Amino acid sequence: SIGLRGMFRACQESLKSFALIDCLGNEMIGSSLLLHLSARCSNIRDIHLTLCSLSDESIIQLANRTNRLERVCLPMCSGISDGGFRVLLQKHYRSLSAIDITGCHQISGDAISQLSHCPSLSSLYLGNCVQTSSATLTALSTSLTSLKLLDVRGCRALDGESILALLKSNPHISTLSLAHVPAVTDQLLRGICTALLSIRVLDLSGCIKVTNTGVMNIVRHPVQALDLGSTGLSFKGCCAIGNYLSPSLKQLSVNFCSFINDECVKKVVNKCERLEVLSTFGCTYVKSFESFRKINPRIKFES
Asked: Which residues of the chain are modeled with pLDDT < 50?
């Protein structure tokens, strides 16, 4: 803690980016650290603090003492609520390009909807922000148009209409996580894959209503990383993945897909020559890893 204060004092106006993971303990309190940072380093642009003990007061001080924040990533900093978050947006809404409040469950959907005033926002992480509602996404869809990344994993209160409205307003989203969102169905996937121009990374793990029919829409895009864990994927869907995603697919997860067996995996391994990682945790019918490695020794199998 003393060393970091000395570093802030030495760097002062030259420090542009700062990241720290897990300062929940007694030795280094996140709020105190952030107060020292904001007092001395007014030109800081990027802040990434994960699992830190932050208060609204420390966020308010950061917002008021800095000149131009562009990337603010505060995942799992559960002490932050509407008070600090609103001040942050009021002061820096013009410059913010990335916000990560994953797991900040005290921030309300109404406060999150104020992100609609951030014209440069391109990356938005709202994973497990349990107060995020359909009304929140609908409000965001009226003004946000520059998103490239959207993560709403675990936001169980969302409906398909609000999700689709936001995606239609942001057709250049290439990285999308809808993991464990109950509203995701094959029909919604059809609308999503029509609304978005080019999906590169897609996480649908835990979307139990997704079947091979939904996968048929996904393969229209040059997807590089695809997570279909705990979905209804089976042999037909694997055939589609092998036939259509072979030029692009590098990472595939089918964890805990109960219909996946050796034939399914063989189809993907045979076709997808660029595949680097294949995850099959919980797939009890997948056993022939040695033969798969002979087909494509470059693939890293996680099981």
From this structure: 26-28
Give the model's pLDDT for residue 11: 83
The answer to whether the CB of 173 falls within 8 A of the CB of 149 is yes
Which residues have a Cβ under 8 Å from the Cβ of 5 and sit 6 or more positions away?
36
Whole-number Å distance between alpha carbons of 96 and 77: 19
Q: What is the pLDDT of residues 235-250, one digit of tens each?
A: 999 999 999 999 999 9
Question: What whole-number distance in Å separates Cα of residue 57 and Cα of residue 55?
Answer: 5
What residues does 18 pair with on adjacent strands? 47
Cα separations (Å) of 76 from 48, 104, 147, 191, 297? 11, 6, 22, 31, 38
Within 13 Å of residue 157, how many CA atoms lie on the same side as its CB? 15
Task: Find the helix packing angle between 160-169 and 186-195, rounded to 10°.
Answer: 10
Question: Around 14, how many Cα atoms within 13 Å sit in the side-chain half-sphere?
Answer: 5
Return the DSSP state at 285. B
Inter-residue contact 18 to 47 (CB < 8 Å): yes
pLDDT averaged over the chain?
Answer: 94
- Determine the pLDDT at residue 267: 97
